Amino acid sequence: MNPLIHSPFDLCHGCQDTLSCPSPIQSNECARGCQLAEPLESFYETYETHTYVDIPRFLFAGQSNMEGHSSDNMNNMFHDIRMIIRKGLNKTETIEELTSLILSTPQKKSVPSKRTARGMASSLFTTKKFIKNRSTKENAYCSFTEPEEDEILDCERLVGPEACGYKHTAFGPELMFAHRFPTFDTMFQNRQIGITKVARGGSTLRQWMKKNENSEDESNYWTVLRDAIHATKDTLEAFVWFQGENDAWEHISAQDYFGNLTEFVSDVRNEIYNVTGAKFSQPSEIPVIIVEVGTWAFSLSPDVLQAQRNFVANDPFSKKVNTGVTPKENKMLSPYYHYDAASYLIIGNRIAQTMKSFYGD
């Protein structure tokens, strides 16, 4: 894996944004940002000044569902959700249409029950104003670095439905988180925020661990995650981890996953603490959110979910976000291995709600 450039995050200077690239690039490369569209050496020869925004940031990391494959299950689902909400129907009519949309997934083996679909539709309705309005968040930035694909850390761009998801053509939980979290009555209310995302689909937890960074047996992403932490300078406020499907696929035991997760989170906290200085009294007090695996991974093995819940139960500064494994059918989500757009919006809202609880009621 190529080493990443160790530098603060810069604002993307995309050719279709309000800023322009320092040298010409093709229009179809805009979504990747100038830094990924030009040869590395020539880019830094022409780009003399860096634009760094000093805002509170949240570190998001994990595997494919953190990457964000919102179009995988149903290609135009997000667009269709917005069109339904923009009709201005009453609550009952809106929920009915959203329910029908959710049930129309072409992935026939992964169709949720009607009660689950209705529960998802009801959850979407509660956040309708965030979906109805501009899909690009004007006061929130995100970056998405894919360790196997990107030679340098991604630049930051305005959060949108095609900003920081898989190959910058989709979205993950960051979209609704960015819209929702700054509205809560916390120290971050009405402030600009940033989301620093590092994710790799199909990765196991051990591939992210510091102790395995020099492994010759498989790729390791600790160095990339560490560089992303340092690139944020002292602005990180919390860590969100969304991973576990591949460990469930490999039938990693609950004991092993718990031990690995405990060590990994400790290393991440220590790295953040070393960068942020006096912001936290000690590393263990850095807020951590574990986004649980969903029904697909749980059907492969219950051990990862058990380990995730055990970790949160034993860590006073961590909280969990449910993504579908619950006895309450109306709280379940898409059973597809990649969540649909509706589920990503709901998960992002749940992460925002959970993050809020770290800073007061």
List the topology elements.
Blueprint: H1 34-37, H2 40-46, E1 57-62, H3 64-67, H4 77-85, H5 91-103, H6 114-126, H7 128-132, E2 137-145, E3 157-159, H8 174-180, E4 193-199, H9 222-231, E5 236-242, H10 245-249, H11 254-276, E6 288-291, H12 295-300, H13 303-313, E7 318-321, H14 341-356
Helix pairs in contact: 4-5, 5-6, 6-14, 8-14, 11-13
Structure characterization notes:
The chain is an alpha/beta fold. It is built from 14 helices and 7 strands. The protein has helices at 34-37, 40-46, 64-67, 77-85, 91-103, 114-126, 128-132, 174-180, 222-231, 245-249, 254-276, 295-300, 303-313, 341-356; strands at residues 57-62, 137-145, 157-159, 193-199, 236-242, 288-291, 318-321. It has a 7-stranded mixed sheet, with helices on both faces. Mean pLDDT is 87; it is low at 1-6 and 14-50.
- Tell me, what is the CATH class of the domain at 56-71 and 141-359? Alpha Beta
User: Uncertain runs with pLDDT below 50, 5 residues or more?
Assistant: 1-6, 14-50
The CATH topology of the domain at 56-71 and 141-359 is what?
A: Rossmann fold
Name the helicity range.
Answer: 25-40%
Content-based structural category: alpha/beta
Computed over alpha carbons, the radius of gyration is: 20 Å
Number of helices: 14
SSE order, one letter for each helix or strand: HHEHHHHHEEHEHEHHEHHEH
Through-space gap between termini:
43 Å
Shape: globular
Arrangement of strands in the largest sheet: 3-2-4-1-5-6-7
Keywords: Hydrolase
Domain Sialate O-acetylesterase: 167-355
GO molecular function, one term: hydrolase activity
Pfam families: SASA (PF03629)
